[in-house]
Design brief:
The complex is a heterodimer of chains A (665) and B (90). Chain A is α/β, with parallel strands linked by helices. Chain A has 27 helices and nine strands. Chain A has helices spanning 20-28, 72-83, 98-109, 122-127, 134-141, 156-168, 182-196, 206-214, 218-229, 239-263, 267-286, 297-305, 310-352, 356-392, 394-406, 416-424, 426-432, 439-451, 455-469, 471-495, 515-549, 552-559, 561-567, 574-580, 585-596, 607-619, 624-664, and strands spanning 6-14, 45-51, 54-60, 88-94, 115-120, 130-132, 145-147, 287-289, 504-507. Chain A has a six-stranded mixed sheet, sandwiched between helices. A two-stranded antiparallel ribbon of chain A has the order 6-8. The termini of chain A are far apart. The relative contact order of chain A is 0.07. Chain B has one domain: Roll (SH3 type barrels), CATH 2.30.30.90. In chain B, strand 3 (54-60) and strand 4 (67-71) form a beta hairpin. A six-stranded antiparallel sheet of chain B has the order 1-6-2-3-4-5. The chains are: A alpha/beta (665), B alpha+beta (90). Chains A and B meet through helix 3, helix 10, helix 11, helix 15 and strand 9 of A and helix 1, helix 2, strand 5 and helix 3 of B. Strand 9 of chain A pairs antiparallel with strand 5 of chain B, so a sheet runs across the interface. The complex binds guanosine-5'-triphosphate and magnesium ion. Residues 16-22, 34-36, 38-41, 62-63, 120-121, 123-124, 149-151, 391, 511, 514, 517 of chain A line the site of guanosine-5'-triphosphate (GTP).
């Protein structure tokens, strides 16, 4: 670390999907999730850049629309800005939606911290015929304004220079106060006077607190309540203060009553209304919009994507192409690679002989190749296509199309986005559920996602079912799983208390996917697989070989006999595969070959057993990483509940399916 | 807009007040009231849907699907339930 550097802490704050993370990545060289839909960043991330003798620590925050406490993202971002007080706030703004974005800017200004405003995506703004007068905006808000195009790295040097300039300024920055309607100002003034005497509240920006009290912000009201209760212990000294403290609540109540009576709306809405009024004035002065006459390709595409018939046909087509493409590409390359691997065996034996050690060595190599040959060919194309869907903004169109179907499982369209991520990997899927506003919806969505076959799980289906029974069986199985998920989701939504919330989502601008962003995204997701999964697979193969050589394997399998053979009609060797599959799903199928001592699984498993095995591994347990994510998001009680119900579901399902198929096959 | 004038409008020119769901694609109108309850109202106003704001319907899916509307330069998707609670004068 460079210790003689002076440290500046800057936070990136702004609406969702404005380009905060792409700026963060560009400056710090890290790799936050980027895509064209609102709500990707769900937790703050920290990175550094060194510039002109300064260490600039940059914090990427979740995108939010307001400093209220409506969603987890808002609470996280607001907590950070209020309690950790960064040296500078960089307010990133989408230049093509200036008006809407400025509400958050006005709220940030109330925090009275030094600020820089980045107007990003000016390329898109220009395409839409929007021109912004940056110097005028700068003088209106009294905040430095820098235009940027994050995807091309334009404007960043200016940003860094500005940060250093502000850091070097000795005297603090002046904060422009935006004033609103007379009577609102009058009431704010009264509240601010009362706040001055409050110990806890006066450590926050007073005007901001006054606004929050009027908006009946729960967290701020909590603070007041706590302060009211505290001094009662050292009663005498603070008697005078106590009186002041207790004044705030009745005062605010009466003010809120007056304002609401007069306007007929809640104070929160009134304040936002007033702010938008001001913003409207500002925008009229600084922004010019030329109506674009010709119909753009963007509009045309959107017509098709959102069309009540064509839209769905296209969606189904894309899903089928995705499945078939991944299957075809995966099948071709993995068979090729497997053959290469098999051909190495004689050479290997020649070099290392035929002892126990050599067998362990070979099995670790086999595990490695298994991981590469089975997993990579499927994962790579899938993540690439997912990246394209994400970065183009098509994914929010899918959320729109799927809204009505998601209601079947008691959720709304936005939940489809984490579900789609869950098809890649359940872990980001579970974390992505934070875009759901309510705890009930989040729990339900997370449960549904743990049922969704991730790529690792799909590999089992492709490699086993696709390879030995044909592509149509893959489709049948996926459709069956889909139906099951719908039924289970529906049942669960009826059990969970509370009403589902309606859909409120920003529809992002359709964009040409940025190849660099997509490739980088694919690479980072792939790297995660290589770093986390591959070592696990190799260690797993070695352990398995050792177990086999020490004959512990047989004992283990015998213990599971009632389940594997008795309940599911599977061969007893599969018991081990089911156990190791808990760590990583694809491990189960990678190891099947070495468990049975043959790479032609058709000789040891009949079609029914293959289907039962695929179904059971899909549902019986989420992998370890997903269990960890579940625990983080839902705590132990719900996690254990989910695990127990899924295990029993898988066993019951396996038992029934094996018997039914046995009768009709 | 004051409380008084809203009340008056509701009683006299009732015919021209409808919900977002009654508008067709391409039609615009101004919001007169949102009856979504505290949390939803606050969220909607944070996204630019305040009283008096002009909105335009961009897309509407048939039956029970959601609505897309343009407000303050951005596009918003609203589920049926919520869209039906936004009252419009046009
Ligand atoms: N054309 C263009 N696209 C941009 C620009 N800046 C960002 N994008 C795209 O905008 C999308 C969103 O960028 P992100 O960096 O993920 O946005 P974010 O603000 O971190 O979003 P959340 O984490 O969801 O709040 C991505 O698809 C980017 O490629 C820009 O200046 N021009
Ligand atoms: Mg982000």
């Amino acid at each position: 670390m460079k210790t003689n550097y002076k440290k500046i802490r800057v936070a990136l704050a702004g609406n969702a999907n404005v380009g905060k993370s792409i700026i963060f990545n560009y400056l710090t060289g890290l790799h936050q999730h980027i895509g064209n839909w609102p709500g990707k960043t769900v937790e703050k991330a920290v990175g550094s850049v060194y510039f002109k003798g300064f260490e600039i620590e940059i914090i990427d925050l979740p995108g939010i629309y307001s400093l209220s406490t409506y969603s987890i993202e808002e609470i996280i971002s607001r907590e950070f800005l209020l309690t950790e007080e960064p040296d500078i706030i960089i307010n990133v703004v989408d230049g093509s939606i200036l008006e809407r974005n400025l509400l958050f800017t006005l709220q940030l200004m109330e925090l009275e911290l030094p600020m820089i405003m980045l107007i990003n995506q000016i390329d898109i703004a220009n395409e839409k015929g929007i021109r912004i007068n940056f110097t005028k905006l700068e003088s209106k808000l009294e905040i430095p304004v820098i235009p940027t195009i994050a995807t091309r790295g334009i404007g960043f040097t200016k940003l860094l220079e500005k940060i250093v300039e502000i850091a070097l300024k000795k005297d603090g920055v002046v904060h422009k106060k935006i004033s609103y309607g007379q009577e609102l100002e009058f009431q704010l003034e009264r509240l601010q006077d009362a706040i001055k005497n409050s110990r806890i509240l006066s450590s926050y920006p007073k005007r901001w607190v006054a606004f929050k009290i009027l908006e009946e912000d729960e967290l701020v009201l909590d603070l007041i309540q706590r302060e009211k209760e505290k001094p009662s212990r050292k009663f005498n000294k603070d008697k005078e203060n106590l009186n002041k403290e207790t004044e705030i609540i009745p005062l605010s109540k009466s003010i809120i009553e007056t304002l609401e009576e007069f306007h007929g709306h809640s104070c929160g809405e009134l304040i936002t209304s007033e702010k938008f009024g001001k913003i409207n004035q500002i925008c009229r002065d600084v922004q010019q919009i030329e109506a674009i006459q010709k119909i753009s390709l963007r509009d045309l595409l959107d017509k098709v994507f959102l069309h009540p018939v064509l839209g769905y046909l296209l969606l189904i087509g894309i899903v089928l192409c995705l499945l078939y493409g991944v299957f075809f590409f995966g099948d071709l390359t993995s068979n090729y690679l497997l053959n290469c691997c098999e051909n190495l065996r004689p050479d290997f034996n020649q070099i290392f002989g035929k002892g126990k050690l050599s067998e362990i060595l070979w099995s670790s190599f086999e595990g490695f190749m298994g991981g590469i040959t089975i997993a990579l060919p499927y994962i790579l194309p899938f993540y690439f296509i997912l990246g394209v869907l994400e970065d183009s903004g098509y994914i929010t169109r899918v959320a729109y199309l799927m809204d009505r179907f998601m209601h079947i499982i008691g959720l709304h369209g936005k939940a489809f986005i984490p579900c789609m991520l869950g098809i890649g990997c359940n872990v980001p899927g579970c974390l992505g559920c934070r875009i759901m506003e309510r705890q009930r919806d989040r729990t339900l969505a997370i449960f549904v996602i743990t049922l969704i076959p991730c790529t690792a799980q799909s590999i089992i289906i492709f490699a086993l079912i696709g390879n030995y029974l044909g592509f149509h069986w893959v489709i049948i199985l996926f459709v069956f799983i889909l139906f099951l998920i719908m039924i289970l989701g529906n049942l669960t939504s009826k059990i969970l208390p509370g009403e589902p919330m309606g859909l409120i989502m920003e529809m992002v601008t359709l964009r040409k996917p940025n190849l660099k962003v997509v490739l980088l995204q694919t690479w980072f997701r792939l790297k995660e697989f290589l770093v986390i999964a591959l070592p696990l697979i190799i260690v797993g193969s070695i352990l398995l070989k050792i177990l086999e050589l020490t004959e512990l394997l047989g004992i283990l399998n015998k213990l599971l006999l009632p389940v594997t053979v008795g309940l599911l009609n599977l061969p007893e060797e599969i018991g081990t595969a089911l156990i190791v599959g808990i760590t990583r799903k694809e491990l189960a199928v990678v190891l099947l070959g070495s468990l049975f001592g043959t790479s032609d699984l058709a000789t040891v498993l009949n079609p029914i057993q293959m289907i039962v095995f695929a179904l059971v591994t899909t549902f019986y347990f989420p992998c370890l990483a997903t269990i960890a994510a579940l625990k983080r998001e839902l705590k132990w009680r719900k996690t254990l509940l989910i695990l127990a119900s899924e295990l029993s579901l898988a066993l019951v399902l396996g038992a029934i399916v094996s018997r039914i198929l046995f009768v009709i096959w | 807009m004051s409380f008084h004038s809203i009340k008056k409008e509701k009683s006299t020119v009732n015919r021209s007040i409808k919900t977002v769901l009654d508008l067709n694609i391409g039609q615009s109108g101004n919001i007169v009231e949102i009856k979504g309850g505290r949390g939803v109202n606050q969220r909607l106003s944070d996204l630019g849907l305040t009283i008096g704001t002009e909105i335009t319907i961009l897309n509407k899916s048939p039956f029970t699907g959601p609505v897309i509307l343009r407000v303050r330069g951005s596009s918003l998707v609203l589920g049926r339930g919520i869209a039906g609670k936004i009252y419009i004068r046009y």
